[in-house]
Amino acid sequence: MTDLKNGSVKQTNLNQSRSDIIERSLAKRYRAEKRFRCYGIMAIAFGLMCVALLFTDIISKGYKAFAQTYIQLEVTYDANLLGIADLNDPQQVVLGDFQGIVKQALKNRFEEVSGRKAKRELYGVISNGAGYRLRDRLVANHQLLNQSETLWLVADDDIDAYYKSIGSDAGPFVGRMSEQRQGWIEQLTEAGEVELRFNHNFFTQGDSREPELAGIRGAAMGSLFTLIITILLSFPIGVAAAVYLEEFAPRNRWTDLIEVNINNLAAVPSIIFGLLGLAIFINFFHVPRSVPLVGGLVLTLMTLPTIIISSRAAIKAVPPSIREAAIGVGASPMQVVLHHVLPLAMPGMMTGAIIGMAQALGETAPLLMIGMVAFIVDVPGGFTDPSTVLPVQIFLWADSPERAFMEKTSAAIMVLLAFLIVMNTLAVILRKKMERRW
Amino acid sequence: MQTANLLIVLLALSAVAYYMARGRSVALAQPLGGIRNLHSLPFFYGMRAAIWCALPSTVLLVLWLLFDEHIISTLLINSLPEGQQPASAAEYNLLLNSIENIASGALRAETAKPVLVAAAESLKQLQQTGRYLVTAVVLSLAVIGMGWGWVKVSPKLRARQQVERVFRGILLACACVAIFTTIGILLSVIFESLRFFQTVPATEFLFGTEWSPQMAIRSDQVGSSGSFGAIPLFVGTLLISFIAMLVAVPVGLMSAVYLAEYASPRVRGLAKPALEVLAGIPTVVYGFFAALTVAPFLRQAGEDVGLEVSSESALAAGLVMGVMIIPFISSLADDVINAVPQSLRDGSLGLGATRSETIKKVIFPAALPGIVSGVLLAVSRAIGETMIVVMAAGLAAKLTANPLDTVTTVTVQIVTLLVGDQEFDSPKTLAAFALGLMLFVVTLALNFVALRVVKKYREQYD
Question: How far is it, in rounded angstroms, from Cα B284 to Cα A218?
């Protein structure tokens, strides 16, 4: 009896201690659970923080580049000073000393300045490119010769950096600015003859050694031409390859080889494609260097795997019943593909193509190999004009020592990212809109 | 005629061929009682004629465009008098260049040798003749093809089969572009690498610890014999990739786990695309960020705690590269985690395991092959990444494992060796191709292993 009682007491004790252990371990396990969950949240927060950091860093560095400091001056198109007697003689116009009349205008504005050194300081206030603008104005309107007009002229990049940083927390950025120049800017500011205006040059000019004159138009046109070549070649070839592999290819070694190749090419580093372009297109086939044509060819080979893979997925998503129905009413294999499968798979293929183009637009490394990294001032006008592309322009500017180029670089990055965001959004919208559940 | 114009004319001709052959087939069918008595639809008769018109002539045109320079320059050099024949390949190119420059007017004819001026004249002549000849041949081929396509139209002609065979052939050719690309890559890197290994032994390249690819211009120049030991580059590449993986693997994996297992659909729908933004940012932007924001920050932070941090440290490049790779790992891991069947989760949870225990003890083991292969692919990405390291890592080839020091990588060296003017017989340029070969082989091997891992160890559920 007692034995029995004892036994049951033991049992309860045991039960109690077991549930105790479980209780205790449960708390521990829940803590571990919480910790694990926390790690997950931290990982995501880290990723999102990086996105936010990247964007704020670039925007805060670059937003100022969309404005430019202009200085108001009264310039006189003095024929003697310009050395132009006849405006219809292009030789004279080209040789005309337009920078000279800018200097004259500055001298008139600050009459008190004397001495060679001080004058040189003064002349540096206005950008070296101001003369070209005056020339264009004079060529457009011959009446202006020997007349005066009041114009807003682009200031030098040092002045620009200084003027933009007035009133900032860190105080004005002085850099290479002399006291004297700061004084002049102060005078001009008080007179209301300095102001920040929208930076047209940035969108209408090619590259330049002078930061205040440098623009992205050349690079943007280069990117456009390169992408046109890329899409014209890679989309048809990619779709054709995908159609072959999905609809026609027999299951044999050759087909396997093609598939293995496509998957491998998708993982080959992009710089290798640059080596290919250099050795095959440029050295063997003598395609000219630095032109959008060869850039487009290289990017075609690079984006082809992406396009083939996404096109295959799109073709796979078309249900077999469509094909069977078409064959059933007497369509030939080619008619099945051209009349039924391709139209239904087209939205998916377009999405893939847009993503491939976005990838090509942001690519830099292979283009460095084929010489699209040159300093090119002229805006390219065709597929065989030497040019550079947006990401390479960013790379080039990021390497420039002038502080003003950092601002330009960030601004160019903002433009590039804007394009990419538009393209990716388009792809997402297309996918959402056209997605079809069978 | 200009190539573009010629192509437009060809297009127009094949359109004409299409309509003529199509019309003829309809006309032939008329007395028989309508087009149902034809073997194929009129469309196919038209297409057949258009293909006959366009295909042979286009192929010829493309061949000409590919090889015209070779043909013309060979003809030109052979026509030079005995004493002027170039002795070596370098001389050949030089000669050709100067003739071309004279012909284009870049070099003044008065100052050049009379033989070369004459050669320039004949070059112009040859080019002119070539252009006329190719236009004539291409157009007559097109017209002959058009006529052939028109003549052969008959109700018995199996036009559809023929057109579909060509169509399939074109598709096959497009699919083979991938193979040609691989062959092209192999040829371009292997040929130049072999030339490189003729001057620098492969063992020295693979196991040497000194990298300074400056070649002496004069033989008596000091300190520039050029040494091509690539070990410092490999170590630098691995160091930066390792740092990148230290960032990317835990963050990518944990965010994939959280998104797949914990997050509500709403959070998932917001956080996943936001993370994938990182994958869409061009590498040059990361490079800018690494060089102008992260590197100065690290340098400053190092100074504050009394550490010597190089302004082009491996750490900065590696960290930023890691951030770039996060979405790559997280999306791959997300896929494999989602592929683990729900029944495994339910079973584990039903036995009383917490969620984290289920993840650690059930889902991870099940998803491991996929995760390992994803990490291997990410490593191959990190090794081949170029712009971040070009902008943020240094050029000095140091053999060090200190992440605060400056190192250089394989891709950085390829870019520095090949950007700018090159001469294709110096080991300096050829070294870039040897490095490219290494890079290609290593990334291919990593890929191959990654695929094998998935194939061999994947558990088959369903």
Answer: 18
Test A369 with B415 for CB contact under 8 angstroms: yes
Q: Which residues have a Cβ under 8 Å from the Cβ of A438 and sit 6 or more positions away? A: A317, A318, A319
- ipTM reported for the complex, 2 dp: 0.89
Domain ranges, ordered by start, for chain A: 2-63, 67-210, 217-434
Which of these CATH numbers, 3.40.50.1370, 3.40.190.10, 1.10.3720.10, 3.90.550.10, describes A217-434?
1.10.3720.10
Could you tell me how many CB contacts below 8 A there are between chain A and chain B? 250
Report CB contact under 8 Å: A272, B356. no
pLDDT in tens, chain B (462 residues): 578 888 899 999 999 999 999 999 999 888 888 888 888 888 999 999 999 999 999 999 988 888 877 788 888 777 777 777 777 777 777 777 777 778 777 777 677 777 778 888 888 888 888 888 889 999 999 999 999 988 888 888 888 999 999 999 999 999 999 899 999 999 989 988 998 898 888 888 888 888 887 655 555 555 555 788 889 999 999 999 999 999 999 999 999 999 999 999 999 989 988 998 898 899 999 999 999 999 999 999 999 998 888 888 899 999 999 999 999 999 999 999 998 999 999 999 999 999 999 999 999 999 999 999 999 999 999 999 999 999 998 888 888 888 888 899 999 999 988 886 666 667 788 889 999 999 999 999 999 899 888 888 776 665
Burial of B89 per CB tally in 10 Å (0-12, 13-18, 19+): exposed
Q: Is A258–B178 a contact, with Cβ atoms under 8 angstroms apart?
A: yes
Contacts of B390 in chain A (CB under 8 A): 365, 368, 395
Q: Do A391 and B284 touch (CB under 8 A)?
A: yes
Q: CB-hemisphere CA count at 13 Å for B211?
A: 28
Please say whether the beta carbons of A105 and A152 come within 8 A: no
Check CB contact under 8 Å for A391 and B282.
Answer: yes
CATH topology of domain B227-457: MetI-like fold (1.10.3720)
**Chain B residues in contact with A362 (beta carbon < 8 A):** 280-285
Whether chain A has a CB inside 8 Å of the CB on B4: the answer is: no
Q: Judge residue A35's burial from the number of C-beta atoms within 10 Å of its C-beta, 0-12 exposed, 13-18 middle, 19 or more buried.
A: exposed
pTM over 0.90: no
Q: Which of A239, A265, A272, A307 to mutate to test the interface with B (most CBs of B within 10 A)?
A: A272
Sheet of A148-154, strand order: A148-154, A67-76, A194-198
B443 contacts A51? CB cut-off 8 A: no
